Amino acid sequence: xxxxxxxxxxxxxxxxxxxxxxxxxxxxxxxxxxxxxxxxxxxxxxxxxxxxxxxxxxxxxxxxxxxxxxxxxxxxxxxxxxxxxxxxxxxxxxxxxxxxxxxxxxxxxxxxxxxxxxxxxxxxxxxxxxxxxxxxxxxxxxxxxxxxxxxxxxxxxxxxxxxxxxxxxxxxxxx
Length: 175
Prior knowledge:
Layout: H1 18-46, H2 52-64, H3 69-76, H4 80-92, E1 96-101, E2 104-112, H5 114-135, H6 140-154, H7 163-174
């Protein structure tokens, strides 16, 4: 059967039972958990100063050109004390700095330093290389489908209100 004769797997209706769907959800849960564990473990290997949370926060600060700590906590659904500890560690490491918000001098906005941009760039490239290596044998069709499934999964309406706009901006950036 050629690709043109095959049904589109993204829209095909499958003959499944509730038990099949439950088993699929369990598999997704197990595999997403393994993915998260692997991501946390590999973060330390990419750069000893950056936990996965630190890397994520730095990336968000770069994408948004600065943010308040409370904005980071709200966006990632993290406790403010968790963000505060991460921010303090990143600031001590010289990777971020606090600047007074020009529109509201009572507010401090977190920004990457040049050192933060440099380390984030190094780690990001290492992570991309690791993904490329892991996905090297995948056909382009599978890569496109996997990317679409991840976007669809992460577009769940229960996320933060500005998440879809941010994802859209990221898609535009990396295409």
